[in-house]
Write a structure and sequence with these properties.
The chain has 358 residues and is of the alpha/beta class. Helix content is 25%, strand content 31%. It has 3 domains: 177 residues, 3-Layer(aba) Sandwich (Rossmann fold); 69 residues, SH3 type barrels (Roll), CATH 2.30.30; 81 residues, Beta Barrel (Elongation Factor Tu (Ef-tu), domain 3), CATH 2.40.30.10. The chain is built from 8 helices and 19 strands. The strands form 5 sheets. Strands 14-17-16-15-18-19 form a 6-stranded antiparallel beta barrel. It has a 5-stranded parallel beta sheet with strand order 5-2-1-6-9, sandwiched between helices.
């Protein structure tokens, strides 16, 4: 097959491209230039998409012995990932930009272009397995990325290849060193690639400006303090509230809810974060839709805990009832359902409730 290997400049994508070539495929490497100012997108091990990353990808392609190109996709990335990220926070939700990037860039814009150019599939260095069209977890549980791939439709998975799913990250690095790839020990990028300094609140403030409002006690309705922008808070947050005085029982307070309409942040005790029902909208079925309630495992954040659950499809949404309460679940995140280690599908969390009294 003719396959296009998306090469980020890191070790995973380099080894994935090399394995695709070893498997007998006709491989072409491509680096996605996603930033309009790539020299500013890495600080230490944070971030990605720099000139350095492009050069690392090019050198890896030379070692592997495959053609290499750079595709400028900063406009698409800015519109579909960065602007979406800012808009979601402005609406009081907590998005996952990695899911959006996989959905809109790597497996929509890139895949569409690849197919138009005559390629049969796109290869990436994601840690996940794809077996007979079924997306499964990686054997390396600590590096598993099936959660952020669960936005892919069956027709997209039919043109995807994930060669690393049967290897641990340590094995990938060892293989890269054996192959003479200079990225063998390159640190992984962390956090949000377009916020390399990790200051999400500062990034959002630059885009949204200050918007002062109240921090309110969820139990009493008392105004406890003020904020300069509700976008700087996420559900479950404990640190940085700067309330000035403790709760009456001396226990810490947590962010329970963010309301962009009233511009208020409501805080309360940890137990008030517990939910046992999650409503998901815009569902994506990775292996065919289901119409009846079914038992599954629900994952509510990347690398987060997995909860036994009952999922009930309800038109264009899911009602997911957790068998044990989860804590600190925010709208805008994804709920991904699994049957064992196989991904059933994903949906965007619209609401989370506590239905069983304490």
């Amino acid at each position: 097959m003719r396959v296009l290997a998306a090469m980020s400049g890191g070790v995973d994508s380099a080894v994935a491209a090399a394995r695709a070539k070893d498997a007998g495929h006709d491989v072409t490497g491509v680096h996605l230039a996603l930033s309009p100012s790539p020299q500013q997108h890495r600080l230490g091990a944070r971030g990605c998409c720099t000139v350095e990353d492009s050069r690392d990808a090019s050198r890896a392609a030379d070692v592997i012995g495959i053609p290499f190109y750079v595709w400028a996709m900063a406009d698409e990335f800015g519109r579909d990932v960065v602007d979406d990220f800012v808009a979601e926070y402005a609406a009081g939700r907590t998005p996952n930009p990695c899911l959006r990037c996989n959905e809109k860039i790597k497996f929509e814009a890139v895949l569409d272009r690849a197919i138009a150019l005559g390629f049969d599939a796109v290869v990436t260095g994601h840690h996940a397995r794809l077996e007979q069209g079924v997306l499964r977890r990686s054997v390396d549980e600590g590096k598993d990325q099936s959660y952020v791939l669960a936005v892919l439709r069956p027709d997209q998975l039919a043109h995807a290849m994930f060669p690393l799913g049967d290897s641990t990250k340590a094995q990938v690095r060892e293989e890269a060193a054996r192959r003479g790839l200079g990225v063998a020990e390159k640190p992984d990028s962390h956090d949000i690639c377009f916020i390399p300094d990790g200051d999400t609140a500062g990034f959002l403030r630059k885009h949204l400006g200050d918007s002062p409002g109240d921090i309110v006690d969820d139990t009493t309705g008392e105004v406890l303090g003020s904020h300069s922008g509700a976008f700087a808070y996420t559900v479950g947050q404990r640190r940085g509230l700067k309330l000035g005085r403790p709760a009456a029982d001396g226990k810490p307070r947590y962010v329970l809810d963010i309301s962009p309409v009233s511009n208020t942040v409501r805080v309360g005790p940890a137990e008030a974060l517990d939910v046992d029902e999650v409503v998901g909208v815009r569902p994506v079925w990775t292996n065919g839709p289901r119409t009846e309630p079914f038992e599954c495992l629900a994952q509510l954040r990347a690398h987060g805990q997995v909860f036994p659950a009952t999922a009930s499809p309800d038109g264009d949404r899911w009602i997911v009832r957790l068998h044990a309460p989860a804590r600190g679940i925010a709208a805008g995140q994804a709920v991904v359902l699994y049957d064992g280690d196989a991904v059933v599908g994903s949906a965007t969390i619209d609401a989370a409730h506590k239905t069983v009294p304490a």
